[in-house]
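Lab notebook page, bench 4
Experiment: in silico fold of construct C2
Operator: M.H.
Input chain length: 136 residues
Purpose: comparison with the prior construct
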Amino acid sequence: MKSTPFTVKRGTHGLGLFSNVAFKKGDLVTEYTGEKITTDEANRRGGQYLFEINDDWVVDGKGRDHKARYINHSCAPNCYPEIDENEEHIFIYAKRAIKVGEELTYNYGKEFWNTHIKPKNCRCTKCTQARESGVK
């Protein structure tokens, strides 16, 4: 068994985060970490690793040591993010049982979808399979 719970490797959208351990539905998988910055600073910086906590604060997970930044979008995700009641932490939980070797995914939300994913077509497994089978 691997000593770390995750492996970063090629996934559905480039690099992805893969589980080295099994998770049960509801298990805490990881925390989305990074520099906490104001929304104004996030708008100035831009980038794909910005996770909005509320209208005033954003976590910038761009550093490669922040493993949750590698969790890719999926329209049929196996994880979901939850912001704690103090709006200090972003936790990622298992939406269903996750097997060893499975890529970790969550839904990035409507705003990210419309801005970044929809114009290029979603590449998650669900959407890719639907396109290949001719389903809309």
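Observations: The two ends are 40 Å apart (CA to CA). The mean pLDDT is 89.
Next step: discuss at group meeting.
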